[in-house]
Design a protein that fits this description.
This protein has about 70 residues and is of the alpha+beta class. Helix content is about 20%, strand content about 35%. Strands 2-1-5-3-4 form a five-stranded mixed sheet. The chain is globular, with a radius of gyration of 12 Å. The termini are far apart.
């Protein structure tokens, strides 16, 4: 299970990157980007959902900056 990789897209102020990561590498990236919004197969999820996911079936993970609103 440690060898299985999935596509992880991460967006920031400079654009975005597409990476092929293992589950642990993805969890480490999520930890480094606390406050970001996480999507699994186009559905917003919590980091704990990623940690408990069956990595063989996880699909694409997207890590996006959280949006804030205000005037």
């Amino acid at each position: 299970m440690d060898d299985i990789r999935t596509n992880v897209e991460i967006a920031d102020s400079t654009g975005h990157s597409s990476l092929s990561l293992t589950k642990q590498e993805t969890l480490d990236l999520i930890e480094m980007n606390q406050g970001s919004w996480i999507y699994k197969d186009n559905q917003m999820v919590q980091a704990t959902d990623i940690a408990g996911a069956n990595w063989a079936d996880v699909g694409t993970i997207r890590i996006m900056p959280g949006l804030t609103g205000g005037f």
